[in-house]
Amino acid sequence: MALDPIPVLQSTFGFPDFRGVQRQVVDRVLGGRRTLAVMPTGAGKSLTYQLPAQMLPGTCVVVSPLIALMHDQLRAATAVGIRAATLTSADDNRAETRGRFLDGELDLLYVAPERASGSDFRELLSRGNLSLFAIDEAHCVSEWGHDFRPDYRLLRPLFDQFPDVPRLALTATADAHTRADILEQLGIPQDGLIVAGFDRPNIRYHITPRDQGTRQIADVIAATPGPGIVYVQSRAGTEKLAEALARTGRPVRVYHAGLDPAVRQRNQHDFVASEDMVMVATIAFGMGIDKPDVRFVAHAGLPKSIEAYYQETGRAGRDGDPAVAHLFWGADDFARARQRIGEVEPARQPGERQRLNALGALVETAGCRRAMLLRHFGEQPGDYCGNCDNCLSPPNAVDATELAQKYLSAVFRTGMMFGATYIEQVLTGQSTERSLMNGHEQLSVWNIVDGDDVALLKPVGRALQLRDALRANDHGGLEFGPAARGLLKGGDTLSMIVPPKRERRRRGGGSA
Ligand code: ADP
Ligand code: ZN
User: Fold this and answer.
1) Are 206 and 326 in contact (CB under 8 A)?
2) Cα(275) to centroid(ligand 2), Å
3) What's the CA dihedral at 123, 128, 133, 139 to 10 degrees?
4) In this structure, which of 114, 215, 367, 426 has its CB flanked by the most CB atoms within 10 Å?
5) Are 235 and 282 in contact (CB under 8 A)?
6) Are strands 478-480 and 323-329 parallel, antiparallel or unpaired?
């Protein structure tokens, strides 16, 4: 008596077949078993509850964290003829929706998690007929996730009132730790975990230290025709960068939560319709946008986590054609992120720190970026993808421990108050008025770096900050961080990537 979902897939949704793990997930749900599906963005998560909602008697209650997202999904579901409604504070037809639910006229009912705590909602559910609980963005239930929302913790007690109604938790972003936590928090058995393949083979990953951020991004735009997204950390930053990028000749728009809603919508609409537009945006942009032909995603600064990086870069190349992802990072990004971690509640700090270190490892690696990403999502990829910066031009790794020790010594001997430029001048013996006045030319660390090591000084300074061996104070002066000791005395080592020699910049003539 197994239910066959294929006819409904074809007639209602118009798809000839399932993709990836969709079939596996749908079969489990139709069998009434609790499930956590981890599927990357664009893999088609919505279908895995919408289809069972069409086939099973009763209403599927969908928990979703953002009202805007819910309304997008509502539109999409209604468009294919699914009977759906949202029940949120933003809806003024709530009484009507309750009536439709009780009369069995709804396949899908979208609600926000805070709804779950109300006894009147519980009461409403008990008077209707339920087919399924679907929990979208299920990582919000975990403190290990990057987007913990306490309201998600109220779901379990509600679901437990309806033990026979199956549960389907969905997320695009969960490392092993977060997954285990979601299973536990939502009462889903271990064998209910289904993980889709995360590889996006048509995306080429590039990760580069930032020098002059604007020029680097303008270069990406010049080299990549087609629509693209540039992610910037602050609202003000998007405006500034957009202005600078207007000179590239491409149409440029901005998107952030501080814009007038009408402007925001117009920009988004124009971007979706465009074939060459560059959208300079905060991470508020992209969720729920269906634009398959985005050719590049560039991060002007460090994303929040590997999950966030994967999700944001995943908006490129959904059509399967080649696309690129560029990330430009600076030591100051890591310093700021560390500072922010210091401000969150203590219980969450270890998790946040782990997340930041994972990002540090990704940007620092001399190995395959894709392999590192996929390993993070629990897969066992090969060591060579052939489609990331490090695979395409393998960097040389050198042991820079001694240079790091010299660097740290110079910071120490000069009193832990000078910035990177001054430290480099001391180490390379560049006499300035300041160094003379400070008497630093007499120090044992004066002029002890030369040759090839000079070019490594800046990257070493960056790596020391990334590892928290050095911290910049409010005035830009470098001080020791907790990891300094291990490098100076504890036998820790620092290996550095020497970037592949760039082709010499054009200097006019055509010499080879
Ligand atoms: P997710 O929520 O996982 O990011 P969506 O549910 O928004 O993904 O689906 C992404 C896109 O894939 C949508 O345009 C959807 O219509 C399409 N899609 C989903 N399932 C299939 C399928 N089996 N065959 C073809 N396209 C599909
Ligand atoms: Zn690779």
Assistant:
1) yes
2) 28
3) -30
4) 426
5) yes
6) unpaired
Question: What distance in Å separates the CA atoms of residue 230 and residue 279, rounded to the nearest whole number?
Answer: 6
Six-digit token string for 124:
């409403």
Q: How far apart (Å, rounded) are the C-alpha atoms in residues 498 and 366? A: 9
What's the gap in Å between 368 CA and the centre of ligand 2? 4
Kindly report the backbone phi and psi dihedral angles of residue 45, in degrees, each rounded to the nearest multiple of 5, phi listed first: -70, -40
Number of neighbours of residue 444 by Cβ within 10 angstroms: 8
Element (H, E) at 495: strand 495-498
Q: What is the pLDDT of residues 47-83, one digit of tens each?
A: 999 999 999 999 999 999 988 889 889 999 999 999 9
Which pLDDT score, from 0 to 100, does residue 508 have? 38
Q: Which ligand is nearest to the CA of 72?
A: 1
Strands annotated E in 8-69: 35-38, 59-63
- Residue 372: pLDDT over 60: yes
ipTM for the assembly: 0.97
Q: List, for residues 432-457, the tens digit of each pLDDT value.
A: 999 999 999 999 999 999 998 999 99
Show the CA angle centred on residue 486, arms to residues 376 and 472, nearest 5°. 80
Mutation to probe ligand 1, out of 8, 15, 75, 110 (largest number of atoms < 8 A from CB): 15
Of 247, 224, 408, give the one whose Cα is nearest residue 324.
224
Q: Which residues touch 402 (CB under 8 Å, ≥6 apart)?
A: none
5 lines ligand 1 (CB under 6 A): no
